[in-house]
Amino acid sequence: MSDNDRGPCRRLRKPGDGRPCRHHGKNYIVRTYFRGPVKYTLRCGTSTWGWKHIKAGHGWNNTMNRKISAAIWSGKPNGGGFSIWTASCPSREKFRTKLGTPAGINDLRTAYQVTSLATAMC
């Protein structure tokens, strides 16, 4: 069955959907995030930083994008990025971002779900 045979339910591919770095260099900006007036960028990067690193090592989907956005917008500083913590006591770190790449200090290097039991005192 071809895409043309699927009728009105055919999924249309959005520009940049799935492979935003396919035809771009490592410094191409894939997403922009904000914390107040400060802008943070996610660039295509390489296997060690940026979108390509996150996709290969941690997975990329809309949920990952939302978690990154939430961590940057309202997360607690973690000494090199921002983290989301649970509201329970003791609080546990759930999601972490790290900033700083060869392309810029406000560029997202990596982001991932925290699986260790890092806790903060109440």
Describe the model.
By secondary structure, the chain is α+β, with helices and mostly antiparallel strands. It has helices at residues 50-57, 62-74; strands at 29-35, 38-43, 76-77, 82-85, 91-101, 104-113, 119-120. The strands form two sheets. Strands 3, 4, 5, 6 and 7 form a five-stranded antiparallel beta sheet that branches. Strands 1-2 form a two-stranded antiparallel ribbon. A hairpin with a 5-residue loop joins β4 (82-85) and β5 (91-101). The protein is globular and about 45 Å long.
Question: What would you say about this model in short?
Answer:
This protein is of the alpha+beta class and 122 residues long.
Keyword list:
122 residues, disordered N terminus, 7 strands, two-stranded antiparallel ribbon, 17% helix, 2 helices, alpha+beta
Give the SSE string.
EEHHEEEEE
**Coarse structural class:** alpha+beta
- Rg from C-alpha positions? 17 Å
Low-confidence stretches: 1-16
Q: In whole angstroms, how far apart are the ends?
A: 58 Å
Q: What overall geometry do the principal axes of the alpha carbons give? A: globular
Average pLDDT reading = 85
- Proportion of beta-strand residues: 25-35%
How large is the count of helical segments? 2
How much helix is in the residues? 10-25%
Give the total of beta strands: 7
Largest sheet: 5 strands, antiparallel
